[in-house]
Amino acid sequence: MENNNLEFLKKNLKFLGFGTSLNAALEAKVSERQESFKIGVSAEFNARQKDGSLGKDKVNYELNFSRSSKPYHYFLDSVKVTLNDQIQNTFSYGKGNDVTAKEAYNLLRGASIHKKSHSKQANG
């Protein structure tokens, strides 16, 4: 079961835009069997600055994992995102409204993102 969970987490990170570069760190942290753990990663994005020039935005991501009630079964709980060491927000995961790494960056920049929402309608 632990191996299936690890593969699920790897696929989830790839889908969320973190690629495969965190796989080794993820494997190491899962093997420690702690209640929770964090993995940090940084990225840079080309961006137009306030003065109109082209520059780079630096984004730090802190991925927070927690262990579920199943033995050694982990899930991505939240991601704390910091833009240029100034603007910060924490995004919760696992509730069907997961944002990708790029979407989180765009939200912190003040840009909009397009997400489809599916709601359950009661039969009445």
| Biggest sheet architecture | 4 strands, antiparallel
Oligomer: single chain
Radius of gyration: 17 Å
N-end to C-end Cα span:
40 Å
**Secondary-structure class:** alpha+beta
Low-confidence stretches: none
Q: Can you offer a commentary on this structure?
A:
The protein has 124 residues and is an alpha+beta fold. It is built from three helices and four strands, in the order H-H-E-E-E-E-H. Helices cover 29% and strands 35% of the residues. It is elongated. The chain starts with a helix and ends in a 15-residue tail after the last helix. The mean pLDDT is 87.
Please specify the SSE layout and strand pairing.
Blueprint: H1 2-18, H2 23-32, E1 36-48, E2 54-67, E3 74-83, E4 87-92, H3 101-109
Antiparallel strand pairs: 1-2, 2-3, 3-4
